[in-house]
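Dear H.,

Thanks for agreeing to be a second pair of eyes. The structure we're designing against is below in token form, covering all 133 positions.
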């Protein structure tokens, strides 16, 4: 059975709007909330620059943004629970590269057009879709 994850009202619409505003590049960022386990929740995000060599076909979170997010989390800031990125020319399903790059315990939100789908890699290495509310 797929993990059920609550997502803050309006968050997906905001992220889809960010992706639509830059339709030729993969947009990306960091997700915050309550980690997987009991009552997982995504309630915030920050935009990060895509520093991939070719941001039209891949994404790589800006290491400075990721480092700042981890530093803030250690100082009682919001917990990092995953990342999001868009697929400008494909469906909101993970590519082989997406699956390989997903870290255990993290959520992976993929945006494509008007579709957003959430995935999770558990600590056993299994990667699968989540249901959202």
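And this is the sequence the design step returned. I haven't edited it by hand at all.
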């Amino acid at each position: 059975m797929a993990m059920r994850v609550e997502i803050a009202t309006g968050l997906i619409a905001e992220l889809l709007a960010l992706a639509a505003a830059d339709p030729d590049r993969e947009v990306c960022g960091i997700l915050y909330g309550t980690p997987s386990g009991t009552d997982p929740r995504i309630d915030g995000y920050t935009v990060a620059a895509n520093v991939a060599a070719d941001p039209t076909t891949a994404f790589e979170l800006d290491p400075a943004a990721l480092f700042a997010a981890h530093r803030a989390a250690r100082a009682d800031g919001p917990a990092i629970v995953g990342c999001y990125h868009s697929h400008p020319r494909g469906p909101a399903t993970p590519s082989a590269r997406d699956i390989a790059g997903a870290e255990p315990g993290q959520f992976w939100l993929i945006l494509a057009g008007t579709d957003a789908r959430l995935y999770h890699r558990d600590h056993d290495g299994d990667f699968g879709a989540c249901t959202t509310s």
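Two observations from my side: The beta strands are 4-7, 28-34, 41-48, 80-86, 107-112, 115-121, 127-129, 131-132. The chain has a mean pLDDT of 92.

Warmly,
E.
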